Predict the 3D structure of the following.
Amino acid sequence: MTSPGAPADVARAVIEITGVTKVYSMGTNKVFALRGVDLTVRAGELLCIMGSSGSGKSTLMNVLGCLDVPTSGHYVLDGIAVDGLDRNALADLRNQKLGFVFQGFNLLARTSAVENVELPLLYDREHRWSDPRKLAVEALGRVGLGDRLDHQPSELSGGQQQRVAIARALVTKPTILLADEPTGNLDSHMTVEVMALFQDLNAQGITIVIVSHEPDVAKYAKRVVEVRDGKIIHDDPVTERHSAAEDLLALGKVDPVVVTDATPVAVGAA
Amino acid sequence: MKQRTLLKLAWQSILKNKMRTLLTMLGIVIGVGAVIVMVAVGNGAQSQIAASITSLGTNLIVVSPGSSAQGGVSQGAGTFNRLTTADAVQLKLDGTMLSAVSPVIQTRAVVIGPAGNWRTSINGVSPDYFTIRDWSVTSGDIFDDTDVKAARKIALLGATVAKNLFPGVDAVGAQIQIGHVPFIVSAVLAVKGQNSTGADQDDVILMPYTTAQNRLSGNVRLGQILVSTFSPGDIPAAQAEITDIMRNVHKLGDSPDDFTVRNQTEIAAAATATTSVMSGLLAAIASISLVVGGIGIMNIMLVSVTERTREIGIRMAIGARGSDVLTQFLVESVVMSILGGIGGLIAGYAGSLLLAHFTGWSTAVPASAVLIAVGFSAGVGVFFGYYPARKAAALNPIEALRYE
């Protein structure tokens, strides 16, 4: 099974789903959110799952993110069969293998950036991380927010909040980073900024799956999968791939870190 | 998740909602405070009663006349009085555990002094009486055995009697008339105060029992014999010894006792039983407010779970198990209620001091109150925090994340 956008056949499959369906029962009605989806994501990919509202892409995202279990079909995440795992095992998988980025940022309010980022490390049951605070500071540095450690979400711009969320997703060194409409709440400039960060992280070898309905986002991916009515209807590599960093330059800004420095921010705690 | 991290998370969340936390804690503060004040009042009443019972005498044993039966109907205590001064003398001679023995002859008479007259109790006693009852004089002297032998007509006035017969002057050496007999006042007794039933112990005249018998009552029977032991531990054995001696003196053979021997503890027990019922009742009423405080915590935790549904979703998405969420909420409610308990402890202590200051009641916060307060409030936190925490832990992460 080869995927059109995979960098090479030797790349390991980190996500492998076959024949996945998801049926919701609404009284006597049955709603088919997914009707048999096969998808393989290999290490190093930057995949964008496209689809309009109601296409089933969010359900697919929830299944990939171990937040929801499929009605039927198989899911292997990084060599682990996810089917039939209980709530606790799924929680542990999310903690160890996955990093989430959401549309609404989903940071804890009134909690500093660094505390938000170290949170997943605190839930690690195997105590793999000896110094959560140090790792959280490193992750924030990686997304260009090394100087915003003690800022609370309300003191950060939307783009900065999303970068804190990305740092939180990265801090556990996950196998795969899942982003659900990561730019949905951002203006076009911040969208490019965040996409530049994703491209940069992907270039460093991180596998990323983005769910979006915006074609603007898809053009920065390496491979685009389109979902409609619970099925994958297209699965193509991106031929004319844009570089978000170049687009940013075209927009007149040098790089994301400088952008954040220029953004007026209510400086609370230093 | 480590314990320290859990506590830190709970503390952060408590700090994020200072006002709400304070108001919630107030319920527990009031509950624990009320329980402590009530326990302190009850405790204070009990120790006051214990003190007034001790004022009856130290290591006291009371021998009273027994009861008689006529045709199978008991006539009640004192109806069959065979107590004599000879019994007292024999107890003093034979008793090995008895430090002091005094017969008590009780009568009442009108006393005439220079400033008027006064009807009061007359007690004829031996010099041991002052040891037994730990009673001293403010002026004059206690009489001794020679005064008893000579049946001297001397009287020791209780503080109340002295105040009424000799207002503002020292009575010692003055002459008074008891019944128709002239007496010399030999001493004025120290103030003893009220006894546990509220009777004035200072409204009394003491004199040698021989004098009382010969000059006033004419009755050879004693009202009671008071006995003191060397130590409180001797009391049970001393009671047995007294019974033995008394049965011998009265040559009872197989007949039942014609006297009763009671100790102070038995007297105290009856009085204490009443107050412990009362303080139990007060504490029970106060603990209702503790329950109300607990319901307040449950209410706030339920609101908090709803309000923080999204936060719970986030935590679950990044790998928190249901048990992690459960523990977090439980720790929060326990930390909150323990803080409330500590606040209640301080409030209760201050409240009982204030109460004592303004009402004059004696209050005593028992040392165990600290444990009770903290233990109870932690229990309230767990009990009332469990349901909301359980509800939080059972949330579906997808729905929780979508919650607006």
User: Anything to note?
Assistant: Strands of chain A lie at 13-26, 29-42, 46-50, 72-77, 80-81, 98-101, 176-180, 207-212, 223-228, 231-237.
